[in-house]
Amino acid sequence: MPELPEVETTKAGIAPHIQDQKIRKLDVRQAKLRWPIPADLAGLVKNQTVLAVRRRAKYLLIDIGSASTATKSETLKGTIIIHLGMSGSLRVIEGKVPPPEKHEHFDICLSNNITLRFTDPRRFGACMWQAAGEDSNLLDHLGPEPLSPEFDENYLFIKSRKRTSAVKTFIMDQKIVVGVGNIYASESLFLSGINPKKAAGKVSKAKYALLTHAIKEVLAKAIADGGTTLKDFVGSDGKPGYFAQQLRVYGRAGESCITCDTPIKQITQGQRSTFYCPKCQK
DNA sequence: CACTAATCCTGGACGC
DNA sequence: TGCGTCCAGGATTAGT
Length: 282
Fold this sequence. Notes:
Elements: H1 4-18, E1 23-28, H2 41-45, E2 49-56, E3 59-68, E4 73-83, E5 89-94, E6 104-110, E7 114-119, E8 126-131, H3 153-160, H4 167-171, H5 182-191, H6 205-224, E9 265-269, E10 272-276
Antiparallel strand pairs: 1-6, 2-3, 3-4, 4-8, 5-7, 6-7, 9-10
The structure holds a DNA duplex.
C-alpha cells in the first residue's frame, strides 16, 4: 500500500522521464476513481509542458504550463494531482504501449515517447486538477511534512494538549502531520516505546521527541530502501521495494517482540488495525 | 471544535 | 470447485 515513501519513490522514478516533456494526450479509460477524473482534464493538459514533479503528503503533483527556452520563463497553468490510494501505481512505459489491461485506468502520453500508466484495482486513487492560483480542498488544509524541520516534539506537544483521542489516531490525522499511514504509525510508536492507546494529550514532550525522531527515521529509511512492498505496490519501474521485511510489529500479531519476546498484540483503533508490544510500549 | 463512524472498491483469504 | 463472507486500507464526509 503506497504510503509516503512509496509516493516519494514513485516521484523519483517518473520525474526524470517526464520533466520538461510536452503532454501529447491524457487517455482516460475509467474516470470513476475516488472522485471522478474531471471531464475537461484531458483538454486542459493537452500540449502543456511538465514544469515540475513534486510530492505533498501522499499526493503526487505534476505542474504543467508553458515554458520558453528563449526567455527562460515559465507560466504555470495548473497542477495534476495524483493519489495512489491503496493499490495504485504509476508505471513508466518506453516506446510502444501494450494494450491496457483491466485496472489500468489512464495513460499520460508524452512527447518523448514515454507513457505514464496508472493502475489501481481498488480505485481508491485519484487524478484531480488544481488550476494555478485557485484553492485546492485537497491540499490547502494539510499538516506539515513529517520530514520537515517544523515537525518536531514542540509542534506535536502543543497540538496534542487536551486531546483525548489515542496517540496513534492523532499522528494519522492529516491535519496534524501528513503521510504517516497505518503501517508507519504502528512502527514508529513501537520504536519510541509509546502505547498506541495512550491519549495524545497525556504523552510527554520527551516521548514526543522520541516519536518525531522515530517517524522521520522510519520514513527516511523506507524511502532509502525504495518503499515498502506489501501486496500490490510496484515502483514506477516495475520493481518492488524492499522495506517490508524490516517491519517490527506491523502484521506480526502473536509473534514474539524482537526486543522482549512478549507476543505482539493486534487491536482495532479508528477502524484500523494496530500492532504493538504491550510490554515495551507504555 | 473534537471525535466517531460510514463510505468508496476489489482481490485474496478463509469457511463450508 | 465454487460460493459467500470478511478483511485490508486513505482520507473525506456526515453525524453526534
